[in-house]
Specification:
The protein is mainly β. The chain is built from 4 helices and 27 strands. The longest helix is centred in the N-terminal third of the chain and has 11 residues. The structure holds copper (II) ion (CU).
């Protein structure tokens, strides 16, 4: 127990103990958007001829508020791209851990002999990748997170075979080193995976403008302000911080009255969200076509699905929802995407109601 507490303490201080050369207060290798800015689509990478090859460098930096960020960035500077694949495709990733080693930092052997995958020893700067929701092999060099350790300076290759019967929909990737994954996920090292073809199961989305929205949580900067419920964690939308207590929302630009296909991942480590679209305070119908990467009403992802219409969508950490929304009409004065308050009981984190974005006319 003592050792675990020691690791936890050490990881919360990771930003403070990493050598200064790797850190930059301007966001450095892991640039972050400004509060109140326009929501941009994450960059896209597509497979060709059944293969998606990508190189990722794993970096750390400080954001404008002094929080420690982590990120997966291509050598060309593309951060957290959405990986688009078809069922049956292969994703090849060369992952290089660019975090500086911490001299004298704790290290623990977690595997030996044939069980070693990457490095045998876990350190505070170890990384690996989990491909959340995918029905892929749990073996070394695929979706294995228990023993896979890629340490500072090392390169590790992933060969992820997406099965032919993978349901079309939204999945995501993130580091998953047991003991430090909360810190790296809250640092923002995550991105979406889209398995293509949902329009074949849910024809209602065919041809609609598509939006990929990623909610992440991160360390809260501000202290408790009297009278304003304090969340355990701050949240961001596509890397735009919506920090307590002002909650300066991100901006979604949308054409009035038109339908869009929204694909939302809760890429938080700890924060539960309950999405709602409010037009002048009135909850709007959300036409759900997929949950957690599976088209609704089509359990095997092969047969025609059904749309489920709700006025809110509860998404735990790692949950995903894909739904059709209709932009506000000319009469609407105030359009907002919010998360409602979640009452998780006495032992739960505090997840108060807060806005994520305002919707403005494009
Ligand atoms: Cu996960």
């Amino acid at each position: 127990m003592k050792r675990i507490v020691g690791w936890l303490f050490a990881t919360f201080c990771l930003g403070a103990i990493l050598p200064g050369g790797a850190m930059a207060a301007d966001g450095g290798k892991c640039p972050r958007a400004a509060a109140g800015s326009d929501v941009k689509r994450p960059p896209d990478l597509y497979s060709t001829n059944g293969v998606l090859n990508v190189s990722f460098d794993y970096w750390t930096a400080l954001d404008a508020e002094g929080r420690t960020s982590f990120c997966f960035v291509t050598p060309g500077g593309v951060e957290s791209p959405t990986l688009h694949v078809n069922p049956g495709d292969t994703i090849n990733i060369a992952l290089t851990n660019r975090l500086p080693q911490i001299p004298g930092g704790p290290s623990e052997i977690v595997a030996s002999g044939s069980k070693v995958c990457g490095s045998p020893a876990m350190t505070l700067t170890s990384v690996n990748m989990h491909f959340h929701g995918t029905n892929t092999s749990p073996k070394c060099h695929s979706d294995e997170v228990i023993r896979t350790l890629v340490n500072s300076g090392q390169t590790f290759t992933y060969t992820l075979k997406i099965p032919k019967d993978e349901p079309p929909g939204l999945y995501w990737y993130h580091p998953h080193i047991h003991g430090i994954s909360s810190v790296s996920v809250q640092g923002g090292a995550s991105g979406a995976i889209v398995v293509e073809g949902i329009q074949n199961i849910q024809p209602a989305v065919a041809g609609l403008p598509e939006r990929i929205l990623i909610v992440r949580d991160q360390a809260r900067v501000a202290h408790h302000v009297k009278g304003i419920p304090t969340p355990n964690w701050d949240i961001s939308l596509n890397y735009i911080p919506v920090d307590y207590p002002d909650y300066n929302p991100a901006v979604i630009k949308m054409k009035r009255g038109t339908q869009e296909f929204w694909r939302v991942a809760n890429a938080s480590a700890n924060t539960i969200i309950d999405l709602q679209l409010l037009y002048d305070g009135k909850p709007q119908p959300l036409q759900i076509v997929g949950l957690d990467g599976v088209p609704t009403g089509s359990h095997d992802g092969k047969h025609q699905g059904t749309i489920i219409t709700q006025k809110n969508i509860l998404l735990p950490p790692a949950g995903r929802a894909e739904f059709i929304v209709t932009g506000p009409s000319r009469r609407v004065q105030d359009a907002q995407l919010v998360t409602r308050k979640i009452d998780g009981g006495p032992a739960s984190d505090s997840n108060p109601a807060r806005p994520l974005a305002v919707i403005e006319e494009t």
